[in-house]
Amino acid sequence: MTAQTAPGSFDAFRTIDLRGTDLSTAALRAAMPRSTTSSFDSVASRVEEIIAAVRTRGFDALSELAQRFDGVEQFHPRVPAEALSESLRTLSPDVRAALEESIDRARVFALAQRPQDVVVDIRPGAALTQRWVPVGRVGLYVPGGLAVLASSVIMNVVPAQAAGVQSIALASPPQKEFGGLPHPVILAAAELLGVKEVYGIGGAQAIAAFAHGVSCEEDRAAIEPVDVVTGPGNIYVATAKRLVKGIVGIDAEAGTTEIAVLADGTAQPRLVAADLISQAEHDPNAASVLITPSVELAAAVRAELSIQAGSTRHRERVETALGGPQSGTILVDDIDHGIAVCDAYAAEHLEIHTDQASAVAARIQNAGAIFVGDYSPVSLGDYCAGSNHVLPTAGTAAFASGLSVFTFLRAMQVIDYSADALREVSEHVVQLAQAEDLPGHGDAVQVRFPDGYSG
Predict the structure, then answer these.
(1) What pLDDT shows up at residue 147?
(2) Bridge partners of 367?
């Protein structure tokens, strides 16, 4: 196994050569390109201070943090109703149409995910039910840093609504250029979806406000705590979500975006390069990874990266991301080897550009979302596929799922036994209770049958 700078165009896009290796799962995971920055430990103490300030000092702390981080003066972070309606009224008709189409497609998919309650009669008179119940209140976070992620409003709100959540609050960083309110397109998307409780709060302080709530102070209305917090964000947001987990439910500790492309010699280099760039423009720490057995394709993709990155609007950001330790080409022996590497990497977004792409995609075990073939780019999923773009990052797709209706549901079990049904198993309960030295458990059954439970 060697790591090197590959010859040809765009040399900063490094190469990791895994050909001829037979690595254990642990060694293969260790060989994957990952960012060396943005460690949780590096910001944990600062995030803990922010959470403590919001928990103990409420709106005063939120106001100070808005001034410090966002440069805005703020008495109360609640966005006025008229600002929401005005943002939608002045929204470009073309952007509105795009948002509406995205909402419609996301809603179709989300509604189809809703599970049915399960009722099982184990024996006569012994009924078990699994009920799916929505959480009562959710706090949804929408980033507002290098990009205006109005699409994240849709991705957070639609599945919550489809799940039946009745109380939805949304937070996004206040913007100095917009009078201390979140970006107007974000506000317009919230208004389109009927979300009226919107706050101009950014970063870790938004997560703290949702998790702990903010009490009513003078004429400043309270922010009620939520049951679940969802949404992507930077390292401060991710760390805050980690620190409040257990106080509230969270979807995931989403980190910087990433794309992996599994491609063979049949792939079109210009498409692969364009898709790698599409995710690199999110953030200088974004990860773009090509996994291929074809040295020729790897060289052609590097040449395309040089051409396309040089003319893209966010060139500096893109080139930084593509040249970082989190990005590069991984050379493999064949597609089977490539699939093993894909599962070790566990990409947030995984594109398949191979012969028999659907069959290859069906063999992948670890990915947040899989995009099959030339006409399913990640950017489609970011906006209008109908799927959700809030997905697990940094290898967590090996055990975590993307945002969906299930994020906002709880499975509640209901046990309903008749006297005869309980009598049928009563002796078993007593025996197991005695075996575990918990005689009170058995007594709780015996007391129901003073005349004997075995007859």
Answers:
(1) 67
(2) 347
Structure-token match 């001829």, residue found: 20
Which residue type does 291 have?
Answer: I
**Strand order, beta sheet including 287-292:** 2-4, 15-17, 328-331, 287-292, 258-263, 347-353, 367-372
Query: H or E segment at 134?
Result: strand 126-134
User: Is the confidence at residue 25, as pLDDT, over 70?
Assistant: yes
Active-site amino acid positions: 348-349
In the predicted structure, residue 1 carries a pLDDT above the cut 80: no
Structure tokens given for 209: 């406000």
Tally the C-alpha atoms within 13 A of residue 292's C-alpha that lie toward its C-beta. Answer: 28
Report the chain's C-alpha Rg in angstroms: 26
Model pTM above 0.85: yes
CA 147 centroid distance within chain: 17
For residue 158, give the nearest of 382, 415, 408, 441 by alpha carbon: 408
Question: H or E segment at 171?
Answer: strand 167-172
SS3 78: strand
Query: What Å distances lie between residue 280 and 133, 322, 366, CA to CA?
Result: 39, 7, 21
pLDDT band at 455 (very low <50, low <70, confident <90, very high): very low
State which amino acid sits at residue 111: L
**Rounded Cα–Cα distance for residues 125 and 198 (Å):** 48
CA distance 136 to 166: 6
Partners of 98 in the beta sheet? none
Share of the chain above pLDDT 70, in %: 95
Q: How confident is the model at residue 6 (pLDDT cuts 50, 70, 90)?
A: very low
Beta bridge partners of 412: 131
Helix (H, G, I), strand (E, B) or coil at 371: strand
Q: Taking 70 as the threshold, does the pLDDT of residue 5 lie above it?
A: no
- 157 neighbors 171 (Cβ within 8 angstroms): no
Contacts of 16 (CB under 8 A, 6+ apart): 1, 2, 3, 31, 33, 328, 329, 330, 331
Mean pLDDT on 93-118: 97
Can you list the alpha helix ranges (DSSP code H) found in 252-392? 269-280, 295-311, 315-322, 335-345, 357-362, 378-383
Sign of CA dihedral 80, 85, 90, 91: positive
The yes-or-no verdict on residue 452 having pLDDT over 80 is no
